[in-house]
Amino acid sequence: MxxxxxxxxxxxxxxxxxxxxSDKPVTRRVAEASCxxxxxxxxVIRLSNLPKGDAFAVARLAGIQGAKRTAELIxxxxxxxxxxxxxxxxxxxxxxxxxxxxxxxxxTGAEMEALVACSMAALALYDMVKAVEREAVITxxxxxxxxxxxxxxxxRGR
Length: 158
Prior knowledge:
This protein has a five-stranded antiparallel sheet with strand order 2-3-1-4-5. It is 27% helix and 30% strand. Helix 2 packs antiparallel against helix 4. The chain has four helices and five strands.
């Protein structure tokens, strides 16, 4: 269990605030995230040929767009000059696996951008399949790894 640290997004009176990162050095930071969309096998087979089009392509583009717009969606996130965004959307035994990787040279990490990329890709995929499957479930959104920054590297153990 991690030690208790003060929340950096709260001022001394408990009000939400954007963290001042102006004194931090600009470093290369990488964040990776993932999630799953659970679908019936019959739906997975149809994903590249749905009534609305290719669900894989739409989900990838939505993920990339979402990462770029994270600061508009997450109130206290800093706008970042993203260097690279990768979003992979792959058929899996129980549906679709979505993975993102975001690279930035900045004063703060890209964890939220990687998580938003997966979230937006999953939501776009859900929108694409809802006409053919109402039982789709978005699950297991998580940060898998990060590097760079004051707190160092992190890789999920499982």
